[in-house]
Design a protein that fits this description.
Elements lengths: L6 H13 L4 H7 L4 H4 L2 H4 L5 H18 L3 H18 L2 H14 L19 H19 L5 H4 L9
Helix pairs in contact: 1-2, 1-5, 6-7
């Protein structure tokens, strides 16, 4: 695992993130993190750290300066596309322009899959015990019993 305190690593994460379509996991992998770490909540929390947030902001500023394209220009183009779509009575194009504007301001994001380590695997005996527990809870609920926490013991490791 690489050192998040290293300013070069932080800049590298920001550069990869801003240049790969803002794919957080892939940016971490490109910056030297393992794939298994990059796809966990723990890995993705790196993006909540102030040095990474600041580095991404700096990278965004550099990209805007180099391309002369910014959110205001994009918004203007999307507004124009929406006007044309309205004038032509094209609801699909209207939705597309509105969706683009929502994504521009992070009101809508593409689905992101996050893999979470579920912990140790259960044995067949434990799985059967949990199935039995689920049946017991379902039965109690069907009878209107809502005091499940106090009355339902956890499954035993050795089965029942």
């Amino acid at each position: 695992m690489t050192d998040i305190q290293n300013k070069d690593i932080v800049k590298d994460i920001a550069r990869h993130y801003c240049n790969n379509g803002r794919n957080k996991s892939q940016a971490l992998i490109s910056a030297g993190y393992s794939e298994s770490y990059a796809k966990t909540n723990r890995g993705l929390k790196i993006y909540q750290r102030k040095p990474v947030i600041n580095a991404i902001d700096e990278e965004d500023k550099a990209i805007r300066a180099n391309t002369a394209y910014c959110s205001k220009k994009a918004e203007s183009e999307l507004d124009e596309a929406l006007s044309v779509a309205r004038a032509q009575g094209n609801p699909n194009a209207m939705v597309s322009a509105i969706t683009g504007k929502c994504k521009l301001y992070a009101l809508m994001t593409d689905k992101q899959v996050v893999e979470v380590d579920a912990g140790p695997e259960l044995t067949l005996v434990e799985i059967d015990a949990y199935k039995e527990l689920a049946r017991a809870v379902k039965l109690k609920l069907s009878k209107g019993d809502t005091n499940l926490i106090e009355q339902t013991p956890p499954p035993s490791k050795g089965g029942s």
